[in-house]
Write a structure and sequence with these properties.
single chain; about 650 residues; alpha/beta; eight-stranded mixed β-sheet; five-stranded parallel β-sheet; 27 helices
């Protein structure tokens, strides 16, 4: 019995949206909110409302949201993620603002955008006193339109003349990137983009050989721009070729001539979409887990009717489309995306199909967990998130059945839902359209994430067979090392601060450059927490950010990966830090807890280790603590701990490996 058959027989209320949702489109609902003056009060609802909006609806959304006062939104919803953006460029670039505003609203992000002088990007970026830097942007968009380079090429010209002008442009952009790194706030990112080559320039050359030469030189210019990119270190470059190759025209000749606005609305919409994905990734909001349906999603056929041998992902043109989708999914998994299955099928049949089917690029070992039953898929996604120790909103759910997608959309707020349908040839395109897993840079921890979760599963199976939890912990041979991070570990520390929600004492978010700068400050104490046990090496699982001042150690933040909680590592870290502080001659350790949406359970962490509150109980959102270092809690007996504070005689960030 296939999922779609079961859906028809399920409760008539299952997966059903509200009457208003069923009656009206996203555009109509947005118009209602706009007419009623409720855009600010309803801002958190826009993410769901715009999830499946058409390009026309997104365009309208951006235009009504762009004039919205961010302070009005924050007055109603103070925890709304906010990003400060400065926009500059070669020509008139203000039209990117509505498109970007709409795209960010789709992802629940509120933008404070300042458009700087049209065409004056050289002055905007080179002058430390410019309005651009006065805006204190987190992200600066320098929009390079299709006339970039060509305004420095005089007629008549040859391909070599264009190449010389392009190289000068690239060097100038490199200098501007350095100026931005020096003048913008720590951790800010400058965003450049590749430049489309227009028909009106290539076809001014009547020689086909010269036209090919120009094409090669121009592609080299764009390649050089792309090679400049280091998003984790403050310089990103958006590649617009995938946008234009999808049929989007790059230039608007009439507006370019009369208003110096050379980009088409469609190009700016594609640019804004890619920029929004980048911003989401820079904020550490990349998704972690892809949850997949099976019948009609991962393979062709109905498992309950056709049996494990009857479903297919090869052998026919339609079957091959499913095979191609599986290979896309496997590629994502190779970069640390966790794969899981949520299906309405018998678990024994699912296990056989995944383990034994000879055609599938994906096998049972590629999935970290499988939920196969006849219950609600929203409940299944929650189960998967709980098993993996991640927030449900870190999930991307892909299913070809509309009612199942709506069930998850309503039952798992914040999860991304991919609208697949009966055409498997479009599955990969739709999965990749929103860049849910995009991140500034891959760390070694990212690549090894599936391995770590496999180790976790083995650990949990071993725990289930242990007589008691204490005996289980004693048998782990758990080793924890805490010391200053090596250079290659800085990206992981930044990633932990950006993406860890549950065990993040203050909610502070740091980029790689901010971590590097923090470690280099006088008196800084930045530590990497590493863990390993009999089941394998977990790598860097936590970070301590502290400062030494006036004889005391002040802990600014402590973050630990959720996948290692419950093994005593958090207790070992705090107890070990207190002991090391005492041995180093500190007279006290200070710390704080700041409330976020996810860290409420940590409110008592410091008091459990002998800290007392400073100046009373504190506010509902922040409490300060102090430890006199007189009575210390012991390090858990099942953990072998090595903890080393920074040595002022050694480099703040060692360059070697462990």
């Amino acid at each position: 019995m296939r999922d779609r058959h079961l859906v028809r027989r399920s409760s008539p209320e299952a997966g059903r949206s509200s009457p208003e949702t069923r009656r009206s489109s996203p555009g109509a609902r947005l118009r209602t909110l706009h007419a009623q003056g409720r855009l600010a009060t309803g801002y958190p609802d826009l993410r769901e409302l715009l999830a499946d909006a058409s390009p026309e609806e997104l365009d309208f959304a951006g235009r009504v949201l762009a004039p919205l006062d961010p302070d009005e939104v924050l007055a109603h919803h103070p925890e709304t993620p906010t990003v400060r953006i400065a926009v500059t460029g070669r020509g008139t670039v203000g039209d990117v603002v509505p498109a970007l505003t709409g795209q960010l609203a789709r992802h629940g992000i509120l933008a404070r955008i300042r458009v700087c002088g049209a065409g004056g990007y050289l002055g905007d970026l080179a002058d430390p006193g410019s309005p651009l830097y006065a805006h204190a942007p987190d992200v600066t968009l320098c929009v390079l339109d299709p006339l970039t380079v060509w305004d420095k090429v005089a007629a008549p010209w040859q391909p070599i003349d264009v190449s010389v002008a392009a190289e000068r442009q690239r060097k100038a952009l490199g200098e501007l990137a350095a100026a931005h790194a020096a003048c913008a706030p720590p951790g800010a990112t400058l965003v450049l983009n590749t430049v489309p080559l227009l028909h009106r320039f290539t076809h001014q050359l009547t020689s086909l050989a010269q036209r090919a030469e120009l094409g090669g030189l121009w592609r080299q210019f764009n390649a050089d721009l792309l090679y400049m990119a280091h998003p984790s270190d403050g310089l990103a470059v958006l590649d617009l070729e995938p946008v234009t190759s999808a049929g989007v025209r790059a230039d608007e000749p009439r507006l370019g001539t009369y208003a110096d606005a050379h980009c088409t609305a469609q190009l700016l919409a594609g640019y804004a979409r890619e920029a929004a994905h980048l911003i989401r990734g820079l904020r550490g909001q990349a998704k972690k887990c892809l949850v997949l349906d099976l019948d009609g999603t991962l393979w062709d056929g109905v498992l309950a009717e056709d049996g494990p041998e009857g479903v297919t992902a090869a052998g026919s043109l339609r079957g091959a489309a499913f095979g191609a989708f599986q290979r896309t999914v496997k590629q994502l998994a190779s970069q640390g995306v966790l794969l899981a299955v949520c299906t309405k099928n018998d678990p024994q049949d699912v296990a056989r199909a995944l383990a034994e089917h000879p055609e599938f690029p994906l096998g049972a070992d590629d999935f970290v967990t499988v939920v196969a039953d006849w219950g609600s898929k929203a409940e299944g996604v929650h189960t998967i998130a709980e098993r993996l120790g991640i927030a449900p909103e870190a999930v991307v759910f892909a299913d070809d059945m509309p009612v199942e997608r709506e069930t998850v959309r309503v039952g798992v707020p914040g999860a991304a839902v991919v609208p697949l349908d009966g055409e498997p040839a479009l599955h990969a395109e739709r999965l990749l359209a929103d860049g849910w897993f995009d991140t500034p840079a891959l760390t070694e921890e990212d690549r090894l994430r599936p391995v770590r979760y496999a180790q976790r599963a083995a650990r949990e199976r071993f725990e289930a067979g242990s007589a008691d939890y204490r005996a289980f912990l004693d048998s782990l041979d758990l080793r924890v090392e805490i010391s200053p991070p090596y250079e290659h570990e800085l990206a992981r520390l930044a990633q932990l601060s950006l993406r860890t929600n549950r065990f993040n004492l203050t909610g502070e978010r740091l980029s790689i450059e901010q971590v590097r700068q923090r470690a280099a400050e006088p008196g800084a104490v930045v530590l990497a927490v590493r863990a390993a046990d009999r089941f394998g090496d977990d790598g860097v699982v936590g970070a301590v950010f502290a400062r030494a001042r006036a004889g005391r150690l002040s802990v600014d933040n402590l973050v630990l990966s959720c996948r290692v909680l419950g093994r005593g590592i958090e207790e070992a870290t705090v107890s070990g830090l207190l002991r090391a502080a005492g041995e180093a001659g500190f007279t006290a350790v200070h710390a704080r807890w700041s409330a976020t949406r996810a860290n409420g359970a940590l409110r008592t962490l410091w008091t459990r280790h002998g800290f007392t509150t400073v100046d009373g109980p504190g506010t509902a959102t922040e409490i300060h603590f102090r430890h006199s270092l007189r009575r210390l809690t012991p390090v858990p007996g099942h953990i072998r701990l090595r903890l080393r504070l920074p040595d002022e005689r050694q480099p703040a960030v060692p360059r070697g490996g462990r």
